[in-house]
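Final report, closing paragraph on structural work. Over the funding period we assembled a curated collection of sequence-structure pairs, and we close with a single example.
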Amino acid sequence: MAARHEEIADELRRAIDREEYAVGSLLPPETDLAAHYGVSRGTVRQAVAALTAEGLIGSRQGARRVVLASRRSQSFTELRSFAQWARAMGREATGDVVTQEYRPAAKEDAGRLHLRAGTPVLHVLRLRGLDGEPVLLERTVYADWISPAVEAIEPDCPSVTQRLYDDTGLVFAHGEHLIDAVAAGAQDAELLGVRRTSPLLRVRRVTTTHEGRPVEWSDDRYRPDAVSFSVHNSIGNNALARTTSDRPIDQRTSGD
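Its predicted structure, as stored:
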């Protein structure tokens, strides 16, 4: 049987996930939490310490705890794949390859992947979903040395990152992200089920190995009604997080 402070920590996690304590809000004082759960303040401190260690809440000497994140969010200070992020939220990630082909590396491909221009590289357009709803288009270019392993993966594999680790031992160790907004073109609109010119959140990223060798670069486009980004700042912390949107996905504009 779990210790009482572990049970309280789990109840607080669920309350944060349900947004009974929203990101940016303060937890009740320890005395109030102790009275609510019928335990001592020491037991509450143990529960709160667990959430602090997980990065869900922050604390400052003499101040109440502030909610920094929920398990529905992913800090970009920790490199996780889309599937890993979804799984951490208890959601099911899907992935379907729309197109996949080799092309000679253009100038941008060569520069980002540290290859010679003209080197054959694998271009993959992949539609990603959460619980069956399309939320993300990934346009990924893989370096020549990893392209054959990617090409061999089944089109509906939910996590290419995990499969590459299982098959080759490859670890995506470092990522650089540039975030902006773009208008949905005809292909984006059709695949994501939004109107053409609708705003999409775009993340352009380059991912490398521990040694700094580029593995891939990608142009990822998210439906803004399904995923949002938030930043939590403090004097000692500046964490960017990816979260699911509070707004339900609008089915009226739908055409994985």
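The helical segments are 4-17, 30-37, 41-53, 82-88, 107-113, 147-151, 160-168, 186-192. The first helix runs from residue 4 to 17. We thank the funder for supporting this effort.
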